[in-house]
Amino acid sequence: MEIKEMRELSIPELEQELNLQRQKLFELRRKKAVGQLEHGEEVRATRKEIAKLETIRREHQLQIKR
What sections of 1-66 are H helices per DSSP? Predict the structure, then answer.
């Protein structure tokens, strides 16, 4: 999801997407631990998505307009 699309989400939608990404990260880490993960870069990409979502959530809290 692009940053522009993320900024258009409402707070509840943002929270929902954040929870989905955290669940995805949990599953990826579990797969990595047991050796089933084929593409290790997915973990890093998911962590970056979570960071973007948290940054945008904070922008909403501080009412920063972009």
Answer: 3-7, 11-34, 41-62
Its domain, for residue 52, covers 3-62
CATH number where 19 lies: 1.10.287
Q: What is the value of pTM for the model shown?
A: 0.90
Task: Give the integer Cα–Cα distance in Å for 45 and 43.
Answer: 6
Residue 6 CA to residue 32 CA, distance in Å, equals 28
Three-state DSSP at 3 gives helix
Q: What angle do CA 11, 24, 57 make, to 5 degrees?
A: 20
- For the stretch 39-48, pLDDT in tens is 999 999 999 9
**Structural domains of the chain, count:** 1
Please tell me the distance from the alpha carbon of residue 34 to that of residue 54, in angstroms, as a whole number: 29
Residue 14 tokens, joined: 């943002």
